[in-house]
Design goal:
The chain is of the alpha+beta class. Helix content is 37%, strand content 41%. It has one domain (2-103): Hypothetical protein apc22750. Chain B (Translation Initiation Factor IF3). It contains two helices and four strands. A four-stranded mixed β-sheet has the order 1-3-4-2. The chain is elongated and about 55 Å long. The two termini are 12 Å apart.
């Protein structure tokens, strides 16, 4: 599956358009990570637990979006974007979306 954050795939021609496809995941904070994040706020540095959590969430949302695209017959998703929103105290949704197309 080809993913592009622009409206085209360089070197390819869009032959068919399938519409918007999406993928999302909702993740909650972890009490241990919150404790360590509090310490890091005092001494500084990367919050590696949260970095890993966000990486996993992005990967899962992308995979779900690509599964939806495959089910339409697409071989690429263009104009890929991410969005986040708070859905409950301590939980957030990571949302991936784009336009499913077939390119040659």
């Amino acid at each position: 599956m080809i993913l592009s954050n622009i409206e085209t795939v360089p070197g390819k021609t869009i032959k068919e358009f399938f519409g918007v496809v999406t993928g999302s995941t909702v993740r909650a904070k972890h009490i241990g990570r919150d404790f360590m994040a509090g310490l890091k706020n005092i001494i500084g540095g990367e919050l590696k637990g949260y970095t890993e959590l966000l990486h996993e969430a992005r990967s899962q949302a992308l995979e779900r979006m690509m599964q939806e695209a495959r089910s339409t017959g697409a071989n690429a998703v263009v104009n890929v974007r991410f969005s986040t929103s708070s859905v409950a105290q301590g939980a957030a949704e990571l949302f991936a979306y784009g336009t499913a197309v077939r390119v040659e």
